[in-house]
């Protein structure tokens, strides 16, 4: 706080507008936007999602203010629809080819499945990079657009390599992967002619997160080992083969102890996820925000872990209330539906029940998704923006326009491959 | 700021014809505080020194997305990104009045949305129609065109997966019945029965029929002539004709290539729904549920025609054509999640009645005879007796 005040005072003394990042969006307006969007998604089988995504981005962009000027999102739903159609044109023959090739069966089929998985993962990362390019070139600030250069295939290859390394090192490579990939992205990002870069250090993130890693991964690995070690595999196999009565081999094989270890590990995982994940997310966002640079302009994030916990607490509270409502409605439906369809034949009854079930499921899923958007997505965006400390914003004053609007094909691929994003 | 506002020529107008704005020329990020003049046919943007920075005709103006309290204007068809921002609500309203494309109330945007929503609903309706009527029809038309060699490959791939999911827990014994020494006589009797059925059916595709250790009273047919007869079915059958009736029904599925058609339908439906529903929370589960329900409704006619084939085949053999109905009504109610090939349909009573009617109307062409002797049948019942 004092930091921001000082900056504002200094700026006023210099006669310049205070370089504070602000978010001015009304939560109520956002709630209305996503709730109406969810209803339309349901009735249009998801076709409305291109319009909803565009609305959400327009809201977030135009309510985010830096040095007194707000951002502008110029993308349109029609472009997203086009990107989606292009993605279908690319993916449908690909899926069909993989399907036909896997029919070969046997080891060849498995090899082809593995190759297909790798290729689709690569394509997913390619899509992530291309989608970022689309979003940047649709982001306008003071009449000048952002843009991104660099080869999306190179990015995808690097990302695939780093994700493999993350898996192999049980997550220890994650900070370095983040740092490298973010450097790649920001190093190819420009605001007009002003080049961006990323200065977050992977080692620093690792040192900050090492304790979290121990708390999360070590008990998990330990629990897994204890579970496996508690089982006397030979006895278990013998007992299973012999078909002895269950209680005796449960004792002799040590399966009882293993179940206890497994349950303990599971409980610990749930608890640590609930507690550690917000801490981890706050740390990552703070590290990421503090590494962003555009020319002389530097950014520091003062995001507090408590804020992230607050965001998730709000989500849980609304989700709890929504669950109560859904539970009541489903309960009433279970009582009423059988009477409504009493006169129908068995087949129609089954269809009616299933349709009602699907509708209830979709409505509930969309409800939770809406709550998530309005609490977590908006909440994190707001906290992130409002805790940014910007120095040398004057670097933004004399930027010359550069770059062209890019195609939305990456967005379409990301959508068709179900890879999330803003 | 220093230039005095021009007074409107019309006396009644309280709306301002000039005011302040912020202009970005689209070439640099320099923020220019400008005077905005509402000329008769254009917005004129003047810098503090009086030079004209931009002159945009009212019909070229475009509202760009911005914060709620700012009217952000651009020039339509302009490849540049020049922006004029107006905070003064009265000046913004005056521009809105003069320019047709400027749409602060969002009315034309809403009209556009309504169109999108209407046509999305129409697209949804026709998609559902195609899914319910079109996909099964297309699959039926395509199925005969698929060569048997392709069907056998498809069958092999599906068989590997189906087998893995069926093969769960049978206490040490082999999954397939009939290989252990004690099961040999049962195997011989089963092979004799199958031999008669296969000869009578004369199918264009070699069959792989196995009895497996599963307690359900069921039998499953996969594409490519793979038939699984569950131990539970053999236990439930009281006569050779009942077992033969069920297997004849399964041969009907092979003859009609129902498995291949189901695969084609499934592929068509997943493409249609999977791609379109896209990336909202839980979309995959909805696709799965929708596919299940649609395929359940397709399978009704499929079962009826397989029943017809079974009854006719039993007639050809000289077996009891009603036996299929008898065993169906006995084991009705035993349900089994998964491929709904045989038993767990709600309308068992309807099926049994239809089988009775077919048996009556088409009398057996071959003279009635026993398919297996009493001792052969007793042996067959022990096909899964274990080691």
Concise account of the structure shown:
The complex is a heterodimer of chains A (422) and B (387). By secondary structure, chain A is α+β, with helices and mostly antiparallel strands.
Give an account of the 3D structure:
The complex is a heterodimer of chains A (422) and B (387). By secondary structure, chain A is α+β, with helices and mostly antiparallel strands. Helix content of chain A is 71%, strand content 9%. Chain A is built from 14 helices and 10 strands. Chain A has a 10-stranded antiparallel sheet. In chain A, strand 6 and strand 7 form a beta hairpin. Chain A is globular and about 70 Å long. By secondary structure, chain B is an alpha+beta fold. The relative contact order of chain B is 0.09. Chain B starts with 17 loop residues before the first strand and ends in a 7-residue tail after the last helix. The radius of gyration of chain B is 37 Å and the shape is rod-shaped. Chain B is built from 11 helices and 10 strands. The interface between A and B is large, with 74 and 58 residues.
Sequence-ordered SSE layout with sheet pairings:
The complex is a heterodimer of chains A (422) and B (387).
Chain A: H1 2-14, E1 21-23, H2 27-43, H3 49-62, E2 64-66, E3 69-73, H4 77-102, H5 106-137, E4 139-141, E5 144-148, H6 152-168, H7 174-187, E6 189-191, E7 194-198, H8 202-230, H9 233-242, H10 246-252, H11 255-291, E8 292-294, E9 297-301, H12 305-340, H13 346-386, E10 388-391, H14 409-416
Antiparallel strand pairs in A: 1-2, 2-3, 3-4, 4-5, 5-6, 6-7, 7-8, 8-9, 9-10
Helix pairs in contact in A: 2-3, 2-13, 3-4, 4-14, 5-6, 5-14, 6-7, 7-8, 8-11, 11-12, 12-13
Chain B: E1 18-24, E2 32-38, E3 42-46, E4 52-57, E5 61-64, E6 71-75, E7 83-86, H1 89-98, H2 107-142, H3 148-166, H4 184-201, E8 208-212, E9 219-222, E10 226-230, H5 231-236, H6 240-256, H7 258-277, H8 283-317, H9 323-331, H10 348-361, H11 374-380
Parallel strand pairs in B: 8-10
Antiparallel strand pairs in B: 1-2, 1-7, 2-3, 3-4, 5-6, 6-7, 9-10
Helix pairs in contact in B: 2-7, 4-6, 4-8, 4-11, 6-8, 6-9, 7-8, 8-10, 9-10
């Amino acid at each position: 706080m004092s930091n921001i005040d000082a900056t504002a005072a200094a700026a006023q003394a210099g006669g310049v507008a205070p370089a504070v990042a602000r978010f001015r969006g009304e939560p109520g307006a956002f709630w209305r936007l996503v709730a109406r969007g969810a209803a339309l998604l349901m009735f249009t089988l998801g076709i409305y999602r291109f319009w909803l995504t565009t609305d959400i981005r327009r809201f977030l962009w135009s309510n985010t203010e830096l040095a007194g000027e707000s951002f502008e999102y110029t993308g349109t739903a029609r472009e997203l629809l086009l990107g989606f159609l292009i993605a279908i044109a690319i993916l449908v023959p690909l899926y069909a080819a993989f399907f036909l090739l896997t029919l070969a069966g046997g080891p060849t089929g498995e090899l082809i499945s593995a190759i297909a998985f790798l290729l689709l993962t690569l394509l997913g990362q390619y899509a992530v990079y291309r989608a970022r390019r689309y979003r940047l070139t649709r982001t306008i600030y003071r009449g000048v657009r952002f843009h991104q250069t660099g080869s999306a295939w190179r990015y995808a290859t690097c990302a695939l390599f780093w994700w493999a390394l993350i898996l192999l090192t049980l997550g220890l490579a994650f900070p370095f992967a983040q740092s490298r990939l973010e450097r790649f992205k920001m190093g190819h990002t420009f605001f007009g002619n002003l080049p961006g870069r990323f200065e977050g250090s992977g080692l620093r993130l690792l040192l900050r997160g090492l304790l979290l890693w121990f708390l999360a991964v070590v008990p998990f690995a330990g629990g897994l080992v204890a579970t496996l070690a508690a089982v006397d595999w030979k006895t278990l196999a013998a007992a299973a083969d012999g078909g002895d009565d269950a209680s005796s081999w449960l004792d002799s094989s040590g399966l009882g102890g293993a179940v206890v270890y497994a349950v303990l590990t599971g409980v610990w995982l749930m608890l640590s996820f609930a507690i550690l994940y917000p801490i981890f997310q706050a740390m990552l966002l703070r590290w990421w925000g503090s590494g962003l640079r555009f020319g002389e302009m530097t950014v520091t994030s003062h995001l507090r872990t408590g804020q992230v916990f607050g965001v998730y607490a709000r989500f849980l509270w609304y989700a709890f209330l929504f669950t109560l409502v859904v539970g009541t409605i489903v309960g009433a439906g279970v009582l009423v539906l059988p009477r409504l369809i009493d006169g129908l034949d068995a087949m129609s009854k089954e269809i009616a029940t299933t349709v009602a079930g699907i509708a209830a499921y979709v409505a509930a899923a969309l409800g939770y998704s809406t709550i998530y958007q309005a609490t977590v997505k908006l909440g994190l965006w707001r906290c992130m923006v409002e805790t940014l400390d910007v120095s040398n914003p004057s670097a933004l004053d004399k930027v010359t326009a550069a770059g062209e609007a890019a195609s939305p094909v990456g967005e379409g691929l990301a959508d068709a491959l179900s890879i999330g994003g803003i | 700021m220093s230039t005095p506002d021009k007074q409107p020529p019309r006396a009644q107008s309280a709306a301002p014809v000039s005011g302040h704005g912020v202009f970005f020329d689209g070439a640099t990020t320099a923020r220019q505080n400008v005077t905005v003049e509402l000329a008769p046919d254009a917005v004129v943007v003047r810098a503090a020194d009086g030079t004209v920075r931009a002159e945009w005709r009212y019909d070229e103006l475009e509202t760009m997305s911005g914060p709620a309290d700012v009217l952000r204007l651009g020039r339509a068809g302009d490849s540049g990104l020049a922006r004029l921002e107006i905070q003064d609500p009265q000046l913004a309203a005056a521009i809105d009045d003069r320019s047709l494309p400027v749409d602060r109330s969002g009315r034309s945007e809403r009209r556009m949305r309504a169109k999108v929503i209407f046509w999305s609903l129409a697209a949804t309706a026709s998609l559902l129609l195609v899914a319910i009527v079109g996909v099964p029809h297309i699959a039926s038309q395509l199925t005969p065109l698929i060569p048997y060699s392709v069907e056998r490959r498809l069958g092999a791939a599906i068989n590997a997966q189906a087998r893995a999911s069926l093969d769960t827990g049978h206490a040490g014994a082999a999954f397939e019945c009939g290989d252990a020494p004690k099961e040999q006589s049962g195997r011989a009797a089963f092979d004799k029965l199958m031999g008669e059925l296969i000869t009578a059916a004369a199918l264009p595709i070699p069959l792989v029929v196995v009895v497996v250790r599963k307690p359900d009273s069921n039998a499953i047919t996969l594409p490519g002539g793979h038939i699984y007869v569950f131990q539970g079915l053999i236990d439930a059958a009281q006569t050779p004709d009942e077992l033969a009736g069920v297997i004849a029904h399964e041969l009907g599925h092979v003859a009609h290539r129902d498995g291949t058609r189901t695969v084609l339908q499934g592929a068509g439906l997943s493409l249609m729904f999977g791609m379109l529903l896209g990336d909202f929370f839980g979309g995959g589960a909805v696709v799965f549920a929708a596919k299940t329900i649609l395929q359940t409704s397709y399978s009704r006619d499929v079962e009826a025609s397989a029943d017809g084939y079974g009854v006719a085949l039993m007639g050809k053999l000289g077996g009891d054509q009603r036996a299929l109905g008898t065993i169906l009504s006995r084991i009705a109610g035993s349900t089994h999640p998964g491929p709904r090939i045989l038993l767990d349909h709600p309308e068992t009573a309807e099926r049994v009645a239809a089988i009775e009617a077919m048996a009556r109307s088409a009398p057996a062409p071959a003279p009635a005879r026993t398919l297996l002797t009493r001792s052969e049948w007793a042996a067959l019942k022990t096909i899964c007796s274990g080691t």
